[in-house]
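Protocol step 4 of 6: structure prediction from sequence.
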Amino acid sequence: MRLAAPIALTFALASTGMPRGAGAAELPIPPNLGVQRAPVAVHGTSRAALAVTPPATFRTRLEPVPAASRLLTAIAVPTTPPGGAAAPVEFRVTFEADSGDVPLYTRVVDGAVAGDRRWIDVGVTLDPLAGRSGTLRFDAVPVGQHPTTAAGWWAPPELVACDDAAPSLLLITIDALRGDRLSAAGYARPTTPHLDAFAADATRFAAAFTGGPKTIPSVPQILTGRYFYWQRSARGLPELLGDGAMPSRAIVNNPYVATWLHGRRPGFAAVQAGELDARAITSAALRWLTSAGRCPTALFLHYLDPHTPYRAPARFARRFIDPTAATTIGLTFDDVTRAWQEQYGVADRQRIVDLYDGNIAYADHHIGRLLRGLAKRGRLDRTLVVITADHGEELWDHRKFFHGQSLYDELLHVPLLVRWPALGHGRVVADVVRTVDLVPTIAEALARPIPEGDGRSLAPLASGAPAPDPLASGAPRPDPPGHHQQPRVAFALVAHAEPRTPERQAVRTATRKLIRDVSDGALQFYDLVADPGEKRNLGPAAAGAADLEKVLAGFRGKLDGTGYQLRLRGLADRPVRYAVDLATDPPVPVIAIDRLTLEPGDRIDFRHRTSAFGLLGTLAPGDEDHVRFDVLATAGVLKLAIRIDGAPAPEGTIRVGAASMRAGEVIDLADAKLDGAPATTPHGSAPVAELWRASAPPTAAPSLDDATRERLRQLGYVE
């Protein structure tokens, strides 16, 4: 309902509450006094907001106004359909003092106007008021005479210290951009002139590898610095950007990234998401940076354009195509399923590759516009700029198209360009590095404590420090704490997030690579010096394979004692065949499935549904077969069906938790009896299946609504 008079809210903020140097202090709003604070998702942006029903006023007192400070907020109103009766809202910020009022900002926002159907960033310098005491007043007033109530939102106002010496952060991930597609990396086509120019003034890591061949898990790994981010408390960027470190924003165009950020929002005060192409993302970023003035900021951008569907503007789509080619494909492409099914001939495949390159050029163009905008605003030399990709793209290198299906370099090798304001310009580093190294790199550049994780800062390599030879002292190992001179080894995994992507794991040095198929335990081993395209599998008996198998075991060991564990025990006198079917209800992802003590002939069956898997094998007398997995849910049930020698397992076969309690085939995930490994070994003449939860369940997977699922299908994902 309409309020008869403005509501006045007043409180004091002492200047001693401002962080020293770079920092942002949210101005506290007293609760239950007419302004409601709550998370909202408005105009594609998820953030905390102050909902107001105009006319409404709130105040905050500054005692005094700090020097070199800026007020940051944002304003929005609901979308008004054509002919709607909702009133436009005038937002005003005023500084009240004994000597008189000083208007700081005013803007009318009309939900019926297309350009106003967004959050409008507000930034006001407080330099002219430095040292004065007074009150900031925030007004939202309906404009004109309308029969219905107006509504609006303020972003929680922040008082920001604008220290020119404090660095900002710009982190860019580009979806599906191969590491070999930059011209600076030797690609023959001029796909990336702006990234090439940036690389010449930055440090280019020529052997950078992501931890997964899909956006999930790779983007969460980048933002947390952990390979298994879902299993442990993974702080990463939240630890760096939280607690008023600096104003922050994420602007993304990938439903997976948006859903994960909306659920976790790791350190970013606001997440803007939607069908934003490179032009829209760059424009939104520059608007926000303009509002921030010269204050330090943290900005994360995820560009989707090199990802299917390929729909770059015509001048970019035409850039690399042969107009005389006899192809069925025009200037756009979106049929991932037919490409996966090998229904395109040579000419069609070449056109798809040409369009992929054109979409890269389109993203490059607008990233160039962003970098010029940083320079124009005087920010570039005060900003740590990190540009990388979440994963690459297979273009029939191993007879497939798209991503997620393998752990070959076309999917794991990504570009990585890092520009420190005063370090390593124009340097090329050939050492193996990982995207999990970015969080400690950012922490060091921002002079903040390095969060616990799986990576190490790249600053020593960028400054020219020599890296140790990974083969000089025996087999390389996963990074142990404190061993900063240990050579980096890249690890990656395929999580069973789609029917086309069964579980695999890999480790890579500069010269060798090992890939493990979790379904049957088979190993592939490649000599990357003689065979950089990974075409000749030398097998596990090749020299050096055993060393890398030990390295891989070290990474896998990070999940020891976590997640769910299933162990089958056989008879004492004869072998038995078993078949296990495990499914979640309602369906939720079951990931990080790993064979712990299975024999070579035993097999994990990855089903069409990612919420289920099967286990087929033989238990020799006295044998144990053991697997682990994670269920991305905290509620629901596990359905566990077991057959022994072709017949349903007898009642009492399934035991759960530390007490080895007998259970049926439907097991409640919320049941605390699941917790803890069995304390005793079951005795008897029948096989036993022991199921337990070795650690607290991870956070549930973010839910996807129907619109998000449809958009993912349009991007080429089948589930």
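Step 5 (inspection) to follow. Residues 346-376 form the longest helix (31 residues).
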